[in-house]
Every structure is written in C-alpha cells, then in structure tokens.
Write a structure and sequence with these properties.
Layout: E1 2-4, E2 25-29, H1 33-44, E3 49-53, H2 56-66, E4 70-73, H3 82-91, E5 100-104, H4 108-117, E6 121-124, H5 129-148
Parallel strand pairs: 1-6, 2-3, 2-4, 4-5, 5-6
Helix pairs in contact: 2-3
Length: about 160
C-alpha cells in the first residue's frame, strides 16, 4: 500500500523532454479537465502512453479497449465515483489485477474506503508531478514483476 502526500511548488517546468518509446499505458480518470490534462502531460513527458476518461462510467466503457497497465482515479466524479469504479474494476476478472491509484484529497475516509475496494496506491491532491510519475512507475514495475513470476498483478479482491 502506498500513500504519497506532496504539495505543488508554483508554476514551473518540471520536465523538459519526451522519452521515446512508451513506458506503459495509463488510463487517467478525472472529471476535472485541467487535472486530467495536468496528469496526462506529466505522464506523457515521462514516456507513458495516456488515455483519459471523464468519469467512472466512461472508464468502464473504455477500459477493455485500452487495456491499461495502471488506472488513476479521482474519487468525486459524476455518474460513477472512484470507489464505485474501483469496485467494478475489481469485480471484473479482466480488470481485477490492473493496479489502481486514487488521486484525490486522500482523507482518512478515502484511504479506508480505497483499501476496502482494493486500491493499490494513493496520491494526495495537490501533488508534485514527480511524485505522480514515481507512483505510476512503481505500480507498473510491481505489475511487471508479478507477471514475470506468473502471478496476477494488482491487489484485486474477489
């Protein structure tokens, strides 16, 4: 279980180059367009392929076509919130083992509810872009290690 708490340091360029060759595919789910774009840009600058969804319902619509290595979820979203989305991802045998990171305020309630639904990591908003990248990389590396050992990735319940 990973919980990261960071604060942003004003507007400054964090990354200066695009890394050739995708490091993995990330499905970013957030109803706030600015946050979605911020996460997308920072991950793409580190070589990740990024697909976005506006809320949990859209995430569930695209997840099987996208086949992400990691999913980042906001908690408060219209139609289907992050916990409902995580629960449905864990209930589906095709997505049960995909690592899920909550990117939200990360209150005690959110962490407890996230653990209950099988979330793998938490990143508190506002976050440092470098911390976001570190969390996503760590989840992908953990997933890759488990797949090489023949065990399913992610903490999935059920």
């Amino acid at each position: 279980m990973e919980v990261a708490k960071t604060r942003t340091r004003g507007l400054r360029r964090t990354y200066s180059r695009v890394v050739p060759g995708a490091s993995g595919r990330v499905l970013v789910v957030d109803d706030n367009k600015v946050i979605r774009q911020l996460i997308k840009v920072n991950l793409e600058l580190e070589g990740f392929e990024v697909v976005t969804a506006n809320d949990g319902a859209e995430c569930l619509d695209v997840v099987h076509r996208v086949c992400p290595d990691v999913i980042t979820l906001d908690v408060v979203m219209p139609r289907l919130d992050g916990f409902g989305t995580a629960a449905q991802l864990r209930a589906d045998p095709r997505t049960r083992h995909v690592p899920v990171a909550i990117v939200s305020a990360c209150t005690q309630y959110e962490v407890e509810a996230g653990i209950e639904t099988g979330v793998d990591a938490f990143l508190a908003k506002p976050f440092e872009p470098a911390e976001l990248v570190r969390v996503v990389r760590r989840l992908i590396e953990r997933k890759d290690r488990r797949e090489r050992k023949g065990a399913p990735a992610g903490r999935g319940r059920g």
